[in-house]
Amino acid sequence: MRTIAKRSAVTAAAAALAMTAAPATAQGSGNHTVLDQGHVDVFGLAYEAGALDLHVHDEEHDGEYAPGEVVLKVNNEAKTTVPAGYDFLGTAGDDVWILPDTEVAGLLFAGYGAEEIAPGDFASDSLTITVHDAWGDVDLYTVDDLGAPAVEFDSDAGLGSWDVTAGGHGHLNWAFGEAGFYKLTVEAEGVLAATGETVSTGEVDYWFWVEA
What we know:
Elements: H1 4-20, E1 21-23, E2 32-35, E3 38-48, E4 51-58, E5 63-65, E6 70-74, E7 79-81, E8 95-99, E9 108-116, E10 122-135, E11 138-143, E12 149-154, E13 160-165, E14 169-171, E15 173-176, E16 180-192, E17 198-200, E18 204-210
Parallel strand pairs: 1-2, 2-6, 3-9, 6-18
Antiparallel strand pairs: 3-4, 4-5, 7-8, 8-15, 9-14, 10-13, 10-16, 11-12, 11-15, 16-17, 16-18
Organism: Glycomyces luteolus
Keywords: Signal
Protein name: Choice-of-anchor M domain-containing protein
């Protein structure tokens, strides 16, 4: 369960974000861009000039943003109910907001991408994305061909991670337990093939706004 202090802190910060958020199509107005539909690599990875970087890549408008420049909006069309067999999301029939791992008009098609990582830079061409914390009830998961879910991150359990292949790309299901603002703290790291050194992006904050 999230503490009242933690929820109050994120609400106050979210209110400040909301005051400055601008639509994705707006140019030069406001301090934050709102992305609310279309293909977006939420966790975009790049390795340039010896630095590993996390960013948001808006595939629809061919735009790239630092995570702190963006509010990722979950439109109310994402509101549904918890299906049977998905106990990690809550009780079957409860409200939940889900951005699915398939493209749906009017919703974010949210994923991750390492197309800017050159093969051979990292040992085994592998990097790891870790979600360290979430302010709010968040679950990230995949579903296999038989409909069985595999949880990559559950805010009730804490830290969760998964591996990404250099040049690779993937999508997740993003589930939120209630309307409001959320913050995810994320880090990516990998071992350099040439030196054996571990490089990291450090912990980076992402903001989500779930519409009622």
